[in-house]
């Protein structure tokens, strides 16, 4: 009977595996994109530390810090220009505390024309929050 109890306890312990850091980081990033697609900017911003670092062609060639409030303002302004803004994740790869994401932004411009913009981002996560967001896309008109 004692052997059966030990085997049962061992089997239960083996089934209780905790998620890997990569799986947790992937979950954070997918949750952030879900908040983005709901246009819930406050919830999206809360996936970042307050005063996270952003590298984005819209800000210029260097990293800038953005608070939660500044993130909300930026995306409220973006939504006013593109009310149906949506990001579709194509590829997501987590390794250590970094998550690489390939996604496509789509929406409708004020003149009624639609756009499709491929984007890549490298996100760095610490303690369950995004601390660095390096986003790459071509923002030059052809």
Structure description:
With 142 residues, the chain is of the alpha+beta class. The chain has one domain: Nuclear Transport Factor 2, Chain: A, CATH 3.10.450. It is 35% helix and 37% strand. It contains 4 helices and 6 strands. Strand 3 and strand 4 form a beta hairpin. It is elongated, with a radius of gyration of 20 Å.
Write the layout of secondary structure elements.
Elements: H1 2-15, H2 21-37, H3 41-45, E1 48-55, E2 64-66, H4 68-81, E3 86-95, E4 98-108, E5 114-126, E6 129-136
Instruction: Give the strand order of the largest sheet, numbering strands 1, 2, ... along the chain.
Output: 2-1-6-5-4-3
Instruction: Tell me, briefly, the overall form.
Output: elongated
Number of helices: 4
Biggest sheet, in brief?
6 strands, mixed
Q: Point out poorly predicted stretches.
A: none
What fraction strand?
35-45%
CATH class: Alpha Beta
> Helical proportion?
25-40%
Gyration radius from CA atoms, angstroms:
20 Å
- Classify the secondary structure makeup into a structural class: alpha+beta
Q: SSE order, as H and E?
A: HHHEEHEEEE
The first-to-last residue Cα distance is: 76 Å
Mean pLDDT: 91
In CATH, the topology is named Nuclear Transport Factor 2, Chain: A
CATH architecture: Roll
Integer tally of domains: 1
Number of strand segments: 6
